[in-house]
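Example (one chain per record):
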Amino acid sequence: MTIHESGEMYLETILILSQKMDHVRSIDVVEHMGFSKPSISRGMKLLRGQKLIEVDGAGYLTLTQEGRRIAEKIYERHTFLSTFIAKLGVNPQTAAEDACKMEHVISDETFEALKRHIAAAEKKG
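Predicted structure:
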């Protein structure tokens, strides 16, 4: 399944919001991301079609098992890359912004290699 960067961002946002709120609605995603309602609505429709989210009768969004897997993968990348870049001396805000771009394009192979390299360096140091 191919999922676009925007879809990954929506899934990650739903995951983050669901950790803070009992129920997540599309309007919560709009407010968190600052995107337009039509953009989010279109995105949610695509994610439903890909069976990555479910929407109940009250409009609450829930990640499916596959949607959660993708969201957690993107969130892990974001968290790891933000921390790593900030440890290099980059302003934390810039590090988070750069990580947000990188998390969508870095290959699984490269990301896993980075994690191994950092883990090995931390054991030595």
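Caption: The chain has two domains: 5-69, 75-124.
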